[in-house]
Design goal:
The complex is a heterodimer of chains A (about 110) and B (about 120).
Chain A (H helix, E strand, L loop, with lengths): L2 E4 L3 E5 L4 E3 L1 E4 L4 E8 L5 E7 L5 E3 L5 E5 L4 E6 L8 E9 L6 E2 L3 E6 L1
Parallel strand pairs in A: 2-12
Antiparallel strand pairs in A: 1-4, 3-9, 5-6, 5-10, 7-8, 8-9, 10-11, 10-12
Chain B lengths: L4 E3 L2 E4 L5 E6 L6 E8 L3 E9 L2 E5 L6 E5 L5 E5 L8 E8 L11 E2 L3 E5 L1
Parallel strand pairs in B: 2-11
Antiparallel strand pairs in B: 1-3, 3-8, 4-5, 4-9, 5-6, 7-8, 9-10, 9-11
The chains are: A mainly beta (about 110), B mainly beta (about 120).
C-alpha cells in the first residue's frame, strides 16, 4: 500500500514570495507521484506529475516539483505566487500498475497582498 | 471536449435513506473512479470501474456500491445513510488501459451530500 504525508497543513505567504509545499510518501512498489490543486467548490486539477525520468518536473501555472527517491519526497515549489494561487494543494501517489490515488491531507495556501 | 459531469451537484438526505450519484466521464474515457472527501478523513478512494467491471476497491463498507454502464457512465449508491456519509463525492475519468501505462485522471466538480 502507498501513503502520503504532507508536512504543512497551512502555509500563509505574501504575494510574489516563493512557496514550498512538502510531501513525503511511502511505498513498497514503483509509484507515480502527483500534485493536485483544489479551488473552493471545485474538483481537483492536476498541477504536475512524476512518472519516470528527470527528477525535476514542471507543471502548469509556474509550479515545479522535485522527486527525491532516497528521501522519498516530492516537494512542490513556485518562485513567485499570486493571489490566485490561494487554494488547497494535495500530494498524491499511485502504484504504477493501477489507478488508485492515495492522497495526503492537503495544504491550504493563503496568499496575501 | 466536455469535462467530467456529476449530478446532482448538491443533495440533502436524512439518515437511513439511500442515495444514487451519477458521473458522466469525458467522451472516450472508459475508466471511472470515485473518491470521498471529508474534513476529517480527507480524500479516500472508493472504487474504480473499467469497461463495466470493478477493477479496484477501497476500504468502505458494503453500503457503498457502484456500477458502470456500457456508455461508461457510472453511478454510485449509498444505502442506509449515516451522518458520517456527509461528504463531497468526486469522480474522475481516464482512458484507463493496461496496467503500467499512465493516463491522466480528470476530476469532476463533485456532488456535495449532506445527511441530516
Amino acid at each position: 500500500a502507498q501513503s502520503v504525508t504532507q508536512l504543512d497543513s497551512q502555509v500563509p505567504v505574501f504575494e510574489e514570495a516563493p512557496v514550498e509545499l512538502r510531501c513525503n510518501y511511502s511505498s513498497s512498489v514503483s509509484v507515480y507521484l502527483f500534485w493536485y490543486v483544489q479551488y473552493p467548490n471545485q474538483g481537483l486539477q492536476l498541477l504536475l506529475k512524476y512518472l519516470s525520468g528527470s527528477t525535476l518536473v514542471k507543471g502548469i501555472n509556474g509550479f515545479e516539483a522535485e522527486f527525491n527517491k532516497s528521501q522519498t519526497s516530492f516537494h512542490l515549489r513556485k518562485p513567485s505566487v499570486h493571489i490566485s494561487d490561494t487554494a488547497e494543494y494535495f500530494c498524491a501517489v499511485s502504484a504504477s500498475h493501477d489507478y488508485k490515488l492515495s492522497f495526503g491531507a492537503g495544504t491550504t495556501v493563503t496568499v496575501r497582498a | 471536449k466536455a469535462g467530467v459531469t456529476q449530478t446532482p451537484r448538491y443533495l440533502i438526505k436524512t439518515r437511513g435513506q439511500q442515495v444514487t450519484l451519477s458521473c458522466s466521464p469525458i467522451s472516450g474515457h472508459r475508466s471511472v473512479s470515485w473518491y470521498q472527501q471529508t474534513p476529517g478523513q480527507g480524500l479516500q478512494f472508493l472504487f474504480e470501474y473499467f469497461s463495466e467491471t470493478q477493477r479496484n476497491k477501497g476500504n468502505f463498507p458494503g453500503r457503498f456500491s457502484g456500477r458502470q454502464f456500457s456508455n461508461s457512465r457510472s453511478e454510485m449508491n449509498v444505502s442506509t445513510l449515516e451522518l458520517g456519509d456527509s461528504a463531497l463525492y468526486l469522480c474522475a475519468s481516464s482512458y484507463g488501459g493496461l496496467a503500467g501505462t499512465y493516463n491522466e485522471q480528470f476530476f469532476g466538480p463533485g456532488t456535495r451530500l449532506t445527511v441530516l
